[in-house]
Structures are given as C-alpha cells and as structure tokens.
Records
---
Amino acid sequence: MQAVQIVEYHQPFRLSRCGIPKPERGEVLVEVKASGLCSTDLHLLDGRQKLGKLPRIPGHESAGVVVELGPGVTGWRTGQRVVVVIDVTCGRCRDCLTGQTQRCVDLQRLGFERDGGHAEYMSVPVQNLIELPESLSFKDACILPDATACMYHSLVTQGKVGPNQKVLILGSGGLGVHGIQIARLAGAEVAATSRRAHRLKEAARLGAVPINPEKQDLFEAIREFTGGEGLDLVADCIGTQQSVSQGFSLLRPGGKLLVIAYLDQHFEFPSLPLFSKEKEIIGCRGTNRLELSEVVELVGRGRLQSIIGATFPLSEFIQATVALQRGEAVGRIVITR
Ligand SMILES: [Zn+2]
Ligand SMILES: [Zn+2]
C-alpha cells in the first residue's frame, strides 16, 4: 500500500510503499478514505514526541470502511463506514473507568506511538471505531476526531461553555474555526483572532467577531466586546507564551483559560491575578469516545459543519504539508484517496 512515513527525525516525510497491516486480535482493517492533516503531524518530525520504533505512519484523523475483521472481532462487519478514535487506552486505569480516556495512564495514539491514517489502510482496535451516519461524507468525517472533537472536549467538557458567555478563540486555524461553531452552538458570544484576512472572513461567516491583533489593539477590542468585563473563556489554539499571557490577562474574575496548544515548552503566569481573581488555567487534551460520538451526531445532523479548505490526494501529501505551513487554507486540509 501507499503510506506516508516518518523514517527519521529532522528529515522530510517519505511517501513509501509498504505492506498492508494484518489486523491482530480485536482489531479490524480499515481502508482509509480520507485523513485530516494537522499541524501536529508536521511537529512530529522535530522529535519532541517519542514515536517508538521508526518508521511510523502519522495521521490521527481518519475515516474509511471496514474491510477485514481480525480474530475475535464480533459486532462489526465489512463495509461499515467508520471514523477512528485516536487514543488506544488501557481500559483499566481510574480515568478509563470513568470514561476520561484522554487521561489514560497507559495511552497510545494512532498516528503517534502506533501507525496512523496517512496511508491506504490502517489496523485499528474495535473500541476505536465509531460508525458514521450515511449523511456524513468521509471527507467531512475524517477531521472530527481531532479538529472538532478536541475543541468540543475543551469548550464543552473542560470549559463548560454556556449561554451568554463571552468567549475568545485565539487562532482561527483548523481547531479555531470548529471552536467558534461549538461555542456559538452552546449559546456563547464569540470573538476570534487571526493575522490572516481569509481566516478572519471565515471566522466572521461563522458568527465570531473577527480580530486581527496585528491591526487592532487586542485589549481594546476585547474591552469593547465584553463591555469592559473581560472574558468568561479563552481557548488558546496557538500555544505560545505570548498567546497564553494575552488570554490569561483578558479573563474576567473567575474566567477560564483553556490551554489546547503547546508550541512553547514552558508557560509562565503572574501569580497575583491568578490568586486574587481566581482565574483558572485548564489543560485540554484530545477527546474521548463519548465526545467524538456526540460530535459525529451534531455534524451528521448539520448542527456543526466541517470546515475544509483544501484537499490533496495521498500522492501529493508533501504539497499538502507545504500548503499547511503557508497557512493558505481556511479550516482543515484533507488528504483524499
Ligand atoms: Zn492534531
Ligand atoms: Zn487507562
């Protein structure tokens, strides 16, 4: 099969030919029809995350068709259309037992520690399958496990977003455009930042107040947006010291900063406002099966929209990464088959 591989850190992705994986006990073989390209895929090349034995096939947003059942698999049949949950979890630790599998102590991720979906086929544990409604295309479905469900986990579960709250989304890329919709769906008023005109236009189309921090004073814009009160929630999809500092200082007393991205290795916060204003800084990692099922349903019913700015065939994966780095697309870039 054709697959994208990380062969060595600090080297470019390689488009290779390799064997189709054989589904092990409890796994199924999925013919991948579409996979989402995340900027984390690019960051994997820097070696900061240990991927185990290389080569590794990246890709943590995948949708496709079940084509083979491994030994011991029941309840699934070939031909079923599925989207794939990223985390392969132990099922035994305290967080797994309460359904908070995104915090599993013994966690592996498809497209990280295990081979992922930027390939023609992938082998997946059955617990990681969610069936797709007919109304959902593979292209729209593939990005849900990360771009959409991660924002759903962050805003709904971690942030408890609700009606009339004032929410700021920092960064209107692949995550941000889905975050805007989720916060709006929850009844919040939303502002969103980007330095790129085409992304701000999309943010505005989705109902957010667009802010370009290079052209506008962000603090002034938020003062106006919140009537001087500050924000209930900031979802930081940028992950730099500058972005989290800005987000933190824009919060109202008791406001929550959702840390969704982690480009910089350390974040520093001033202690006095954290203490005296009882602000909260909340880490938000990935999603769990329940949240992804809810997102699949919302998108299937047309309540949320997958925003896909460009598609590339698997054979043009490298060109897709260039487009991602240039920030040309609005929303996600999807790799089709
Ligand atoms: Zn990702
Ligand atoms: Zn666990």
---
Amino acid sequence: MTELLYQTDSYLQEFDSVVNTVLTEERAVILDRTAFYPGGGGQPCDLGTLFVDGVSFPVIKVKKQGEDVLHFLGGDAHLPAPGSACHGTLNWSRRYSLMRTHTAMHVLCGTVFRDYGALVTGGDMEPLKGRMDFEFENMRGELVREIEAAVNEEIKKAHEIRVRILPRDEAFQIPDLIRTKINLLPEGIMQVRTVEIVGLDLQADGGTHVRNTSEVGSIRVADYKSKGAINKRIYIEVV
Ligand SMILES: [Zn+2]
C-alpha cells in the first residue's frame, strides 16, 4: 500500500520513501509513500525522477493499481533492490500547470452550473489545456464569450480552495456532492476526498489543485463543439 502524499499536500515537489516492491518485467517500483499523482479524474500522471543509491531513474509513467502506486522507470540502469531508500522529485512545471488547469476546469464546471444549470458528463486535460462535456441543451456559440468572462471573473475573486477527507457517510449528506455523481463511488470506498472552491464548487475529487483561484491566471475558451442536441463540449486554455 502506498501512502498518497499529494492528497494532503499538492505543493510537495520532492519526498523521501522506501522501495517496497520491484516489478522487473514492467520495470516499475512500488514505494511506501509518493508525491507522484498516478493519473485519474481527467488529470494525467506526474513525471519526474527517482534517485536510488546514486542512480537517477526517469519516471516515465505512474499508475494506480489497487492500493499501490506503480512508478515506471526509464533508462537501462539496474533496477533498485526492494528495501532501498529513495528520493523522488516531480517535474514541477508540468505538475503546477496541471494544478492550475484542474482548478480552472472546476471553476468552469461551477460557473456553468450556477449560470445555466448544466451538468458535467466528462472531461480531460493536459498541461494548460482541457475540454469538458456538459448536458447543456441551450448552449450556443454566442455564449462562449459570456462563459469565458464569467469564469475569469470567478478566478479573479481569489476563492480559497479547501481539500478535505471525509467519512463516506458524512460526504453523502452533502447535497452539492450528489449532483456530481458521488453515488457512483464504489461501495468499498470508506473515505471521500472533497475539493471545494469556496463559494463556487464542491466535488468528490482525487486530483491536485492550487490553493487559490488567483493562481490559475486566466482562461480562454478555445473552441466549442455540439456533440448532439444535449451534449456540448467546451475547450479551454489556461494563460
Ligand atoms: Zn476534478
């Protein structure tokens, strides 16, 4: 089982840990704790470097597998032995860009729900770019500039972002979480991590976010596509 350091401190750029398991065929290691985000909820995984016994391994992919986080190592150096102490560093410019982007997506989601009552059905992002799908029957191209202005206004209000880990029962009492499909959470999950943009948006979410919307900068709606009568896709860029 890997302790997920990024869940409680998304600003952690480096960390010490121990190699618990080595998967030779996959060229991957499982650590006892990690700051690497393994991907999920539309946010891609982190990249970076692991240092073990004077050898540096590029971390080329990270993936969650059950309760473990697998770090896939590039290069051709001999894999470390289980029990080795290691030091990890994130590619911080990539991660911080993803934090700004992920928070921007939640501001978009909260603003569109508040102003138009439209629900999100999916989304995806890469550093400083993202797309979000809405059930948004009345969406029209003309609304793009209106949505962009409203989102940028919320970003400028410098809303604080609060992350909490709640017992499942408590989270299920929160009406805002019901609309974001918290009821789809598998039964075995006893704790729910929530990300709240205070005054705007509250979601069950495993991703890494900035502390304040002012860190996002601003967004531009780059494109908009109708995917049918109801489903509409909005593309944003973070600048
Ligand atoms: Zn999210």
